Amino acid sequence: MATLRQQIATNVLTVTKFRDLQKTVAANRPGDDLAIIKKAYEYAQAHHTGQTRASGEPFLIHPLEVAQVLAEMKLDSGAIAAGLLHDAIEDTEATREDIKKEFGEQVANIVEGVTKIDKIDVATSKEERQAENVRKMILAMVDDIRVVLIKLADRLHNMRTLEHLEPQKQKQIAQETLDIYAPIAHRLGMGKVRGELEDLAFRYTDPIAYEQIRAAVEARRKSGEDFLNKTVKFIQGKLKENGVDAKIEYRIKRLYSIHQKLLKQRIPVDQVYDLLAIRIITKSVKDCYSALGAIHGLWRPVPGRIKDFIAMPRPNLYQSLHTTVIVEGGMQFEVQIRTEEMHKMAEEGIAAHWKYKHGGPVSAKDEQRLAWLRQVVEWQQDVQDPSEFLSTLKVDLYPEEVYTFTPKGKVVILSRDATPVDFAYTIHTEVGHTCVGAKVNGRIVPLRHRLQNGDVVEIMTQAGHTPSRDWLGFVKSSRSRNKIKHWLNVHQRERAIEIGKKLIEKEARKYRVALKNIADKEFDRVATEYGLAGMPDLYAGIGYGKFSARQVLARVAPDFASGDVQPQPESDDVRDKPGGLAGVIKRVFGGASGDSGSIQVTGHNELLVYRARCCNPIRGEDIVGYITRGKGVAVHSAACSNVTNLLYEPERKIAVEWSKKAEPKAGKPGTYPVKITVACDDRAGMLKQLTAVISDDNTNIRNIETRTGDGNATIDVVVDIEDMKHLERITTGIRKIAGVREVQRVKKL
Ligand code: MN
């Protein structure tokens, strides 16, 4: 039981804080309903009574501080009331229904949203917990962004008072702040909150680095501030001469941002050079550029450090001009130039638009911010693995972007190392799906090409073209990744079902089992036995190679299982039956046009058919298809030594053929990389002659490696080959070179 004196002290503290809150609200949102805030305060006071924080302070201080942060963000009274109540459901007797009755549906929803984010299953691993937390945050954002703003304010106050917790806990919470909360604040354009979260967390995540940088900054503070004071006055005069009306601020850079810079540039702390920054806030965009000109007239800019985020805003819509200049004596400082409006947006982000609004944000910029969130939500529903979710999210949360252009000059912002496929998916999903090649600055590039700032990208599409699984190996954005995966999942399944069905039919024919006498519900029953939902899943499982057709048939047709039925002789070779499996495979994988129906074995762009890596067959070779377990149809060279092993399960062998049409690839006929080993004399000019033979045939060389010794040389060359004839032409040509002893194709690349 607290003494009377303690109770009075507590009351004085909380009442003072509440008065401050009322003052802030009145100043930031004159005319707002203060009654609901007062009511929420009294409600929180009644419910949290007797509770204390780790610091020993009354618990009520916490919701009051959170509400204060929200009031400073200029949020509406509903959000502030929800901020006062944010821990009520979690930590007191209060229920959602109570809050709804007292404060209405909206406030209750927000408080519940905040509570849900906190409720995480403690049984899961740390990483899963983190991923789950982010998922919930993002889902909550879409319902009502104020939930996340309250969560950020909550985290901010917890970080401000983190010193009262155990060291272990401090570190964990600080790390989580850096991993999740600061990036989300950044993504929402809330520079001020992000900055404070980062600096508070840095102290605990890396205390040694923090202390070093803090000491280095302190040692330079006095001289730095003297310099900045002088410089600001000087700039002020110059801007006046140029007719620019501007406010100038200066600051010493944030510790965490210095830390990141040191890490990036790999320099020690005593070389901190650009910790000084000046900010010029103008009345108009025109004045921003005038000011930049004036600054560059005074000092020499550091090359490569001039950035125009006004013309090309960052993905979080940050706008500003940045430049770094060098003054006499080698001292550098950064100058940021922006308008008042841009400055407000940079500091407050999505919260900046709450001033005159209740409920959801409406402006175009807010819409753009929320578009990102919606995108994240759209794909997060498809991602099952929490760690994958987190890692793709991290790519999105730390955008190191490149600016590219459409041929018409529209800016397309992509993450660093993005490829033409990412570009295509950013334009439109359909452009992504049908993308076959790309030109960058007028030159054809491979689809895995890494785009650079300023690239003009033209995507070549082809109707009917479909995404390739290989693309997953190089795309950068989570958006393209998920679009591709989604497409593959849907189509792979359709095909697997069709193949599964035909495999069953083939097997039934072979053992003279009359499928038409077996009811569909028998298949459904077997599906259930396998733990599947129904017949389509069962077919799909067979198509993917998870179960064999014979196994399934034995379960649906008991006669067959008892051994009464003998297999028919192999006369019904699938090759001879147009309606048989080969026919389906052909139809599904290629010759849809109904010509001789040959399979288009591409190995790249078809999903379930791929060239076996052991022998890499090329067009013109005799080939054999084999339905693998779970990976689709592998196409081997008929001469491949692995093919004999495939006879273990002859029912999985299928006939495949090369399609007549070559696979179109970036406008050129399809080619395959083929490795050729040449044994020859080690003499001058050998390599030159060899490459001449290959390039005279208009053949692309992918790679060339030479080993020499004892006057002999072995040259491994990987060339792009269209078909067997092409390969023979090349090998014959190489054999004719004087000093070449042996030319061999290496099956395995
Ligand atoms: Mn809280």
Verbal overview:
The protein is of the alpha+beta class and 749 residues long. α3 packs antiparallel against α4 (77-84), α8 (126-143) packs across α17 and α20 crosses α22. The model is unreliable at 355-361, 569-580, 582-607 and 662-668 (pLDDT under 50). Strands 1, 2, 3, 4, 5 and 6 form a six-stranded mixed β-sheet that branches. A four-stranded mixed β-sheet has the order 12-14-13-15. The protein has a four-stranded antiparallel β-sheet with strand order 19-20-18-21, covered by helices on one side. 49% of the residues lie in helices and 15% in strands. The protein starts with a helix and ends with a strand. Bound molecules: manganese (II) ion. Residues 62, 86-87, 154 line the site of manganese (II) ion (MN).
Shape: globular
Number of helices: 28
Work out the strand percent.
5-15%
Bound ions, cofactors and other small molecules, one mention each: manganese (II) ion
What value does the average pLDDT take? 79
Structural class: alpha+beta
What are the low-pLDDT stretches, counting only 5+ consecutive residues below 50? Answer: 355-361, 569-580, 582-607, 662-668
Largest sheet properties? 6 strands, mixed
